[in-house]
Amino acid sequence: MAENSRNGEIHSNLPNFLLSVRLKYVKLGYHYLISNAIYLLIVPILVAIGLHLSTLTLEDLITNLAMLKSYSTLVVFLATLYFMSRPRNVYLIDFACYKPHERYMISKERLVEKLAGIFDEDSLNFQKKILERSGLSDKTYIPVDKWIPSNFSLSSNQHQAKLVIVGAIDNLLAKTGVKIREIGIVIVNSSMFNPTPSLSAMIVNHYKLGVNVITYNLGGMGCSAGLISVDLANRLLQGQANTYALIVSTEVVSAAFYTGKDKSKLIPNMIFRMGASAILLSNRFSDRWRSKYQLMHVVRTHKGADDRAFGCVYQDEEEDGKKGMSLSKDLMAVAGEALKTNITTLGPLVLPMSEQLLFFASLVARNVFKRKIKPYIPDFKMAFEHFCIHAGGRAVLDELQKNLDLSEVLMEPSRMTLYRFGNTSSSSVWYNLAYSEAKGRIKKGDRAWQIGFGSGFKCNSAVWRALRNVDAATEKNAWTDEIEDFPVQIPC
């Protein structure tokens, strides 16, 4: 995602998506809720049968063998139905975010110097203006030694991809103690860089994984692809017992570098930075005790059927052969519509009943009875303790904070991620969560909401519930050695 006209990027503010809600998306949310919760009704029935049988004497049971047989048959049937229809729990054992070596750290001033010999004065000044107002610090990371067009080769991009991917995976394996050959599913998402053999094949080759490992490589799906990978892993784990799934989310920044003069394509040069995350999921019940989180919900929204949404983030090639990613002036409006749809579907799954009743009553009054009343805006702060919003740009975070009525503390992980690491694409929501862990804010039972946006156009959500307190004193992640320096005041 990108900025608004304040930074010369997008010429529209995010619409107030909570003021206009379509009933069909609310119905979709309740459909998900009912579909996933029917099996829970079996438990009260089994309990009622058990309580009734406990009141009967041995003589009653002997004289009512037919009733006992009927009850036994019903219990066996319901128990079988329960275990067959019950979805497998998916646990997040741990995750790791890659922190590049200091040699890749670059200040805004040095970045402008590196670009001076590539762009004309007008293009350079435009990028400098974006950089100054981006909300990024002087400590973000870029592969500086490769950051000139003559070095943008396939081999250099492959080197960069392997550097961040293997770095993230090695950190994850060290944290979890899981042996790499125990992993049965590998999913990699990288939007702009997709070589042959694939990045997932590179992982198999580097770690010498077994021939039975299942691999997937997701490309061209934008900054929300990390949550798409979570959804894919969840679906695969439902059908394969006792399995570990490894998810790697990254972006190779040099593959998205643009050297032309189109200002809408120059924006990514200034906000995207090196980064990667590695996540280890398990459906083994025995892993619950050591896991950090349990996956509760994934809600995906795809607006690609609409031409305006489909074309608002678009890669193309100019007449001189220069490739770039164009950002439409409609991007903010499209993002608002996608987020509105997504949270309307998500609401029934996560909001407390009190909020749902007030929201639903307001919706019915306005849409069914045509009453001119102010719509009730659900308070998502009652559903989540932590908000991990994709750190795509400063203006986007500003607009989401206003529309969701979030405090500075709740926005802190996203703003600090953008400031310290820049826009790391699909991995940014994991840097957000790592920030909250390093601050010691994750407590048992807390719910974290990850929100990602991507080309296509997509908005995706994942909801996690903490299974234990995360001890900041023992936690080691990308923030650990400098967390005491945050939060910082970001200049306007």
TrEMBL record:
Q: Where is the FAE domain?
A: 82-367
Q: Which residues form the Beta-ketoacyl-[acyl-carrier-protein] synthase III C-terminal domain?
A: 385-465
Give the UniProt keywords, A-Z.
Answer: Acyltransferase, Membrane, Transferase, Transmembrane, Transmembrane helix
- Which Pfam families does the record associate with it? ACP_syn_III_C (PF08541), FAE1_CUT1_RppA (PF08392)
Q: GO: which molecular function terms?
A: fatty acid elongase activity
Q: List the transmembrane segments.
A: 32-53, 65-84
Pathway, according to UniProt?
Lipid metabolism; fatty acid biosynthesis
Q: What is its main location?
A: membrane
Catalytic activity reported: a very-long-chain acyl-CoA + malonyl-CoA + H(+) = a very-long-chain 3-oxoacyl-CoA + CO2 + CoA
Which InterPro entries does the UniProt entry name for this protein?
A: 3-ktacl-CoA_syn, ACP_syn_III_C, FAE1_typ3_polyketide_synth, Thiolase-like
User: Where's it found, cell-wise?
Assistant: Membrane
Q: What is its EC number?
A: 2.3.1.-
Q: Its GO CC terms?
A: membrane
Any single GO BP term = fatty acid biosynthetic process
Superkingdom of this protein's organism = Eukaryota
Concerning PANTHER family, the annotation shows: 3-KETOACYL-COA SYNTHASE
Similarity annotation: Belongs to the thiolase-like superfamily. Chalcone/stilbene synthases family.
Name of this chain's protein? 3-ketoacyl-CoA synthase
Q: What is the lineage of its organism?
A: Eukaryota, Viridiplantae, Streptophyta, Embryophyta, Tracheophyta
List the gene name. Answer: LOC107771123
